[in-house]
C-alpha cells in the first residue's frame, strides 16, 4: 500500500523520526554556517495540530506547531516558546518561511519550510554537534473542535499524544534541506531514537490519550452542581417544603457549595495550562469568581436563618429570608450562563454546546414550573383557610376600613349568633 507523501530519506543531512502508532513523521535539516532550521512534519488531519520541539521538557523549549489554515487547504506554522506545563506562547521574533508543498494532502497535514534564526531562544539553544539532542513531539486532541486559522497565536487545546526522542544533529547538518518528497511504503528512523521515560504502558516512548483531565473534571463537577444540586436546593428552599424538610435543604446546600469549591479548584489549576486563561481575565473566569463568592455569602445568610431568627417578631418574612431565597435563584441563573461561557472558552464542539443549552433550558423551565405549582398550592390553602374563617369557622371576622360593621368575638350566654355592633366612625 502506498503511503501519503513523506520525506525522501535520500541525503545524510537529514534526521527524522517516524511514529507508526500515530502515523506521524518529523524531520529536520541544519544548513551549515547558518542559524536556520529546515523542517518537515506530517500527521493525520484528525489530530487538530502536529508539533515538535527542542528540549527535554516544556520549560525553556522552542517549538514549531502546524495546523490547517483558515481556507482548510494551506498550513499555518507557529513558532512558540515553552515556559512549563502550560500552553506554549507564540513569539513574533521568529519567522517561518513555508515551502510550496505545505498543504492539506488528502487526510494528512504536511508542513515543510525554514525557521529563520531559530537555533537559540530565551533559556535554551540547539546543539548542532551532538548525537543526542533532546527533542519532543505532540499531537492535538483528535476530532476536537476544528482548528483552522491563519493566526499564529491561536489558542491550542492540550495535546492528546506526545513523546520524546534523541536526534543526531551531526547527521542532520549539511545541504539538501527537507523539500524533496516522494511516496514511500517503508519508513525508518534515521539519526533518531525514541526515549521511553513513561513506563511499560508507553511503547517506544509514546503517550496516547493524554487529554485535558482537569478541564474535563471542571466541567463535569460544575454540570452536576448546576443541573442537579442547584435545582434541588432551590425547590427544597421554597414554601412548605422548607418547613417540612429543613435538614435536607441544609445538606443539599452544603453539597452544592462543596461542588462549587471543587469546580473552582479544578478550574484554577486548569487555567494555568493555557495562555488565554492564566491571567484569569476572561469573562468565564471573572463571572466564576463572582458567583463563587456570592455562593459563600448566600450560604452565610442561610446559616443565619437556620440558627438564628428565621422570621421577624410579627411573623412576616424578614428581609434576610427574601435576599437568601431570591439571591440563590439569581445565582443559579448566573452559573448557568457561566457554563455556556466556559464551553465557548474551551472551544467545545457545537453538539456539546447545543446539548448543554437544551438541558439547561429544560432544567430552568422545570424549576420555574415546580416553584409556580408550590406557590399555587400554598395560595389555595391560604384562601381555603381564610374562606372557612369568613363562613363562621369560629374565628373573629373584621371588616376593615372598607366595611361598615364588625363582628364581636364575644357572645352572651344563650346567643346563637354574634352580636352586630354598628361601627362608630367618630370614635376613630
Automatic annotation (TrEMBL):
<feature type="transmembrane region" description="Helical">
    <location>
        <begin position="352"/>
        <end position="377"/>
    </location>
</feature>
<dbReference type="InterPro" id="IPR015920">
    <property type="entry name" value="Cellobiose_DH-like_cyt"/>
</dbReference>
<protein>
    <recommendedName>
        <fullName>DOMON domain-containing protein</fullName>
    </recommendedName>
</protein>
<feature type="transmembrane region" description="Helical">
    <location>
        <begin position="286"/>
        <end position="308"/>
    </location>
</feature>
<dbReference type="Pfam" id="PF16010">
    <property type="entry name" value="CDH-cyt"/>
</dbReference>
<feature type="region of interest" description="Disordered">
    <location>
        <begin position="401"/>
        <end position="428"/>
    </location>
</feature>
<keyword id="KW-1133">Transmembrane helix</keyword>
<keyword id="KW-0812">Transmembrane</keyword>
<feature type="transmembrane region" description="Helical">
    <location>
        <begin position="216"/>
        <end position="235"/>
    </location>
</feature>
<keyword id="KW-0472">Membrane</keyword>
<feature type="transmembrane region" description="Helical">
    <location>
        <begin position="247"/>
        <end position="266"/>
    </location>
</feature>
<feature type="domain" description="DOMON">
    <location>
        <begin position="49"/>
        <end position="140"/>
    </location>
</feature>
<dbReference type="InterPro" id="IPR005018">
    <property type="entry name" value="DOMON_domain"/>
</dbReference>
Amino acid at each position: 500500500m502506498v503511503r501519503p507523501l513523506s520525506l525522501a530519506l535520500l541525503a545524510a543531512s537529514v534526521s527524522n523520526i517516524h511514529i507508526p502508532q500515530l502515523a506521524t513523521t518529523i524531520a529536520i535539516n541544519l544548513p551549515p554556517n547558518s542559524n536556520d532550521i529546515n523542517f518537515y512534519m506530517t500527521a493525520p488531519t484528525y489530530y487538530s495540530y502536529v508539533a515538535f520541539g527542542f528540549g527535554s521538557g516544556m520549560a525553556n523549549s522552542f517549538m514549531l506547531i502546524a495546523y490547517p489554515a483558515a481556507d482548510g487547504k494551506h498550513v499555518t506554522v507557529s513558532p512558540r516558546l515553552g515556559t512549563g506545563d502550560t500552553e506554549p506562547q507564540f513569539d513574533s521574533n521568529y519567522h517561518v518561511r513555508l515551502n510550496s508543498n505545505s498543504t492539506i494532502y488528502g487526510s494528512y497535514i504536511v508542513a515543510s519550510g525554514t525557521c529563520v534564526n531559530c537555533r537559540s531562544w530565551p533559556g535554551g539553544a540547539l546543539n548542532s554537534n551532538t548525537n543526542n539532542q533532546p527533542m519532543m513531539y505532540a499531537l492535538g486532541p483528535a476530532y476536537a473542535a476544528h482548528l483552522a486559522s491563519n493566526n499564529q497565536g491561536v489558542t491550542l487545546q492540550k495535546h492528546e499524544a506526545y513523546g520524546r526522542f534523541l536526534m543526531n544533529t551531526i547527521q542532520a547538518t549539511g545541504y539538501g534541506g527537507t523539500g524533496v518528497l516522494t511516496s514511500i511504503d517503508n519508513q525508518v528512523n534515521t539519526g533518531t531514537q525514541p526515549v521511553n521515560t513513561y513506563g511499560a504502558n508507553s511503547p517506544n516512548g509514546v503517550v496516547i490519550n493524554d487529554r485535558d483531565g482537569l478541564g474535563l473534571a471542571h466541567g463535569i463537577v460544575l454540570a452536576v452542581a448546576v443541573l442537579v444540586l442547584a435545582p434541588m436546593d432551590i425547590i427544597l428552599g421554597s414554601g412548605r417544603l422548607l418547613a417540612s424538610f429543613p435538614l435536607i435543604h441544609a445538606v443539599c446546600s452544603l453539597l452544592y457549595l462543596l461542588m462549587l469549591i471543587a469546580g473552582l479548584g479544578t478550574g484554577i489549576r486548569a487555567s494555568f495550562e493555557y495562555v488565554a486563561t492564566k491571567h484569569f481575565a476572561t469573562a468565564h473566569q471573572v463571572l466564576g469568581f463572582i458567583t463563587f463568592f456570592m455562593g459563600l455569602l448566600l450560604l452565610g445568610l442561610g446559616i443565619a436563618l437556620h440558627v438564628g431568627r428565621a422570621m421577624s417578631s410579627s411573623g412576616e418574612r424578614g428581609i434576610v429570608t427574601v435576599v437568601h431565597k431570591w439571591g440563590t435563584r439569581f445565582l443559579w441563573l448566573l452559573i448557568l450562563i457561566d457554563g455556556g461561557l466556559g464551553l465557548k472558552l474551551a472551544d467545545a464542539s457545537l453538539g456539546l454546546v447545543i446539548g448543554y443549552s437544551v438541558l439547561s433550558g429544560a432544567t430552568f423551565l422545570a424549576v420555574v414550573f415546580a416553584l409556580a405549582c408550590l406557590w399555587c398550592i400554598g395560595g389555595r390553602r391560604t384562601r381555603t383557610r381564610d374562606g372557612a374563617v369568613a363562613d363562621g369557622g369560629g374565628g373573629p371576622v373584621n371588616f376593615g376600613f372598607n366595611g361598615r360593621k364588625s363582628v364581636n368575638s364575644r357572645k352572651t350566654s344563650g346567643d346563637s349568633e354574634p352580636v352586630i355592633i354598628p361601627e362608630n366612625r367618630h370614635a376613630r
